[in-house]
C-alpha cells in the first residue's frame, strides 16, 4: 500500500494533491461566505426585529423655552433637584468624532468619562490614542475624567465580545466613582451623538420615562450619506448605585424620536478605516485583502456602498430593496452637530467632502 503513494510511481497524484487541497479549502471558505450572503438575503424570512418600541414624539427648535418644551412632551419643569449629567464612552481611535461630541454636549454635560484600552476588542495592541492627543482636548480638561484599562490578548476560544464586556465592567467602576443616585448617565458609542437640546430637555423636565433610548439618524462615512432612523442603542438612565449597568442593548421600550446622529465609519484617513475594519468586534466581515485597499475604501466613501461588499441588513424585503444600492447622497447639511459646521477641519464630514487622505 505504501508504494501506491510514492511520488516515483504516481507523480501526477503527488503534484495534484496540493492543488486539490487548496481548492477544497477555497470552496470551504467560499461556501461560508455564500451561507452568510444567503443569510442576509433571507433575513426577512427567518429573523424579526426584536426591539419593540413605544415611540415618544420629540419637540425641539431653536429659541423654544424649556417650560414650553416640557409642556409639549407632557412633562413639567423640575424645580427641586439639579442632578449631574455624565457622558460615558469607550474610546478607541475616534479623535475627530469625539471632539465633535464634546463640543456638541459641552453646555449640558457636567462630566465626560473616557475609558481607553491598550488593545482593541479583537486583542490587537494599540497605543493610548486619546492620551497621546490630550493637548487637543486641553480646553475641556475641567470636565474630563480619563481612565485606562490594560488588557491582554484574547484567551483561547474567546470572541472580541470578551474584551468588550470587560471594558463595560470597568466603565461601571469608573461611573460609580463619579455618579450619585439620580444623576443622568449617557450610554452610547463615541459616534452616537445626542443633540444637546435633547439632553437639556431631559435634564430639566420631570416625568421623563427612564431608561430612555434615543433614536438617532444613521449616517455612513460622513453626514453626506444618511441611511435611516434605525439607530436606538444610545440611551440615558438615572443612576442607581448597584443597579445601573453600562451596556449597549435594549433596556426599555421608551424611544425618543429623532434625538441625535449616529455617524458610522466617519474617519478622516484611510488608515483609520483599515484599523476599524480589522479591529472591532465584527472584524470577521473582512473577506479578503481587496477590501482593505485604498482604492476600494475611497470608492465606497464617495458612493455610499457597503465597505465589506455585503448585502443590506434588513428585516423586510421592502427595506432590503430600498437599501440595495447603498446609501443615497444628500446635499443637505441642515441640523448637523454644530462643530461640524463651525470648523473647517471637519469639512470631510460634510456633503462634497468624501476624498480622504491616506494617513
Automatic annotation (TrEMBL):
Pfam family, one: Glyco_transf_17
Name under which the protein is recorded: Beta-1,4-mannosyl-glycoprotein 4-beta-N-acetylglucosaminyltransferase
One GO term describing the cellular component: membrane
Entry annotated with the keyword Transmembrane: yes
InterPro entries from the UniProt entry: Glyco_trans_17
Positions of transmembrane segments: 12-35
GO BP: any one term: N-acetylglucosamine metabolic process
Presence of the UniProt keyword Lyase in the record: no
A single GO molecular function term of this UniProt record: beta-1,4-mannosylglycoprotein 4-beta-N-acetylglucosaminyltransferase activity
UniProt KW keywords: Membrane, Transmembrane, Transmembrane helix
